[in-house]
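B., you asked whether I could sanity-check this one before it goes into the benchmark set. Here's the sequence:
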Amino acid sequence: MIENLLVANRGEIALRVFRTCRDSGIGTVAVYSDADAGSPHVVAADAAVRLPGSAPADTYLRGDLIVKAATEAGADAVHPGYGFLSENAAFARAVLDAGLTWVGPGPEAIETMGSKVESKRRMAEAGVPVLPELDPDRVTEADLPVLVKASAGGGGRGMRIVRSLDGLAEAVEGAGAEAASAFGDPTVFCERYLETGRHIEVQVLADTHGTVWAVGERECSIQRRHQKVVEEAPSPLVDPAMRERLFTAARQAASAIGYVGAGTVEFLATADGEFFFLEMNTRLQVEHPVTECVTGLDLVALQLSVAEGAPLPPEPPQWTGHAIEVRLYAEDPTAGWRPQSGTLHAFAVPGVAAEFAVPARYGLRLDSGVTGGSVVGVHYDPMLAKVIAWGPDRAATARTLASALARARIHGVVTNRDLLVNVLRHPAFLAGETDTAFLGRHGLDTLAAPLAGERAVRLSALAAALAEAAHNRASATVLGGLPAGWRNVPSAPQRKAYAAGGAEYEVRYRHTRSGLRAEGHPEVALVAAHPDRVVLEVAGVRRTFDVGRYPGLVAVDSPLGPVSLTPLPRFTDPDAAVAAGSLLAPMPGTVVRVAVSAGDRVRAGEPLLWLEAMKMEHRIAAPADGVVTDLPVTAGQQVEQGAVLAVVSGSEERE
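And here's what the prediction gave me:
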């Protein structure tokens, strides 16, 4: 029996495992890096052990330190979560060699499936349909497009789409470097790329007594950078006949390697129901909550039970209803999915019925590793939370989830929230047309468009200005009850300027004896203004705006859509200007490679260097033809957000 469990992970997955442990009477041990010292998973554990440093290579990827932490804290078992060392056979062996219980499949199964090359060979032998592997050195025009993939790991890292042979060498080099950084193995291979495939996966669970469950399928086709964004169960593509074939293939895959524990067999399917084995994730999946919601199972509890040697029932339960999960990321889809960092000032999703657990009835579930006040750093994946809706059917579930996301209070970092809501409300999504080309086909100009339109932004800016004035009057020591800028005679209006979405908005208003007079808003009357809430009557309709103020940010939430405003100073600091042609670091990170030198001529789009942050490599390219006139960084250098990485000047300026 497991008495005390260490989770070799962080954030929401650690909290998810801890929740089941509490329900089961099992003690919990957390490990944490210096960057995570104040994280919720550390607070939630019965005991916590520090892993010195912040980078994954120094902390969560140090299996020796984690095994040592388990023995020192009195743990008798280790759960790997997902990511980091969860699919590392050497780590599983180290846990077992230390006399601890490993909550996962045996090291041999991890090793077999950890190599995409070897796993595809084994699956082909077991009769599971596979896409043929291509040697990068032998790819021809006839093979294009191809997908360059890391043999180890997953999560979209070490993957590149290649449509031209001219770009193959760079893709192989970049994918290998990213794979080496993320997984410690630079091996890559190629396979045929299906432009409009459907990503279908089957949750399997196997015990030590020979029972193998195919619990149900999930569809995870909507992806960015080969990482899943929206997941659902069951799949709108799969009919009963296809489901039976999928389940048979998944059970064959698990049985072929003597699999024990929870795992996922992933397939790429075509619209006509043909499918091919992609990989097997020998761990719990990020998207496991949708399967839990429709089946009522606690997959973590079953993992623990199997690890203790208990048998599974002969058959898994049938599912009920439909579940959809979205991954809320701190990233900007309109800027190349650029990860964001900073303080998450506020985080609240309305209507949540359960956290890290299946709701008692149809409703919302939240699995989150952050709270208001959490700092989103640069060392780890930028996922903030998983928001899951479970409902009687797909349409109702999508509507519930979209509404909750639209009304959520998320202040402090840019997120993909607007994109998620637009996807869930899109007619093609609601029709079940969800292949891997969904985002590209429908376009980020539509899918990532702000939920708040121009009118909503202008009204929110007015509300922000009125809330700030109310705050100033509330804190005034003299005549605090008077409206801001009140005069006995007409005078210049009050002025406040904000930036939002690349545009500037100036608010000009006066308080008169007959009420608010706001320029550009003749239809607006002020009902009430408080430091954190403003009520306006707009063309006879009363609207409430909730206002959060933070350093350099005003966040306004209303049914018209969330709006983030940056207050603009009346006068700019000339010292803040940077040289024309400067390329600034979009986030803190490490310069991993430099492709040019000062004085080199470059063409628009040519890579200058690569910046690693949040476990991804970011290509910094020349914005135009010109000459590299300054290159103040070198490989291995740490840079802060906004630091000058390079300066590219036009050729005529150099001459």
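One thing to flag: The radius of gyration is 27 Å. Otherwise nothing jumped out at me.
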